[in-house]
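User: Some background: our group keeps a shared notebook of sequences we're curious about, and every so often someone picks one and asks for a predicted structure to add to the entry. Today it's my turn. The entry only has the sequence so far, pasted here. Could you supply the structure so I can complete it?
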Amino acid sequence: MSGEVGSKAPAFTLLDSDGNEYSSSSFAGKKAVLAFFPAAFSGVCAEELCTFRDALADYSGLDAEVIGISIDGRFANGAFRDANNINFPILSDYKQTAIADYDVVWPDFAGMDGYTAARRSVFVIDANGNIAWKWLSDAPSDLPPFDEVKSEVEALS
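Assistant: Of course. Here's the predicted structure to add to the notebook entry:
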C-alpha cells in the first residue's frame, strides 16, 4: 500500500498556483509536511492552511517545507492562496494522481455523487524521502492535530 509510514513517499510533479511544475524532488534532503485538503474556499480548509501559514517560521526553522495539495484547479488555488495570504506552495492535483498514490481519495465528497476530493490528511516526510508520520481525517470537518504535526517534524531533527 502506498502512503504508509516507513515507506518511500510517492513522487509527484504537480502545478503550483502560478502554473509552474513543482516536483517532490524539490524538497529532497529536507523534511516536508504535505497537507492534503478537500476544497479551496471551504472554511475548515482555510483554517487549516492559515494555521500552517502562521507556523511556517517554526517549520522553516526545522528545515521543513510545508506544501498544500488539493484537486482544485491552479486558478482556484491561486485565488485561495491570495485571499488567505498563504506563503507556501498550494499544488493542483487536478488529475488526482497524488491523492491516489497517497491513498487519500475521498469519493462523492460532500454528498456530490461522482465528485472526488482529497481526504484531509497530513504526511510528514523525512529528509530521506520516507513517510515518517501521517494523519487521516475521519470527517471533512476534522482539523489535523497541529501540535502533533510539529512534534513529529521536531523528532526528525
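Suggested note for the entry: The chain has one domain: 13-136. The helical segments are 43-54, 56-61, 74-83, 97-101, 146-155.
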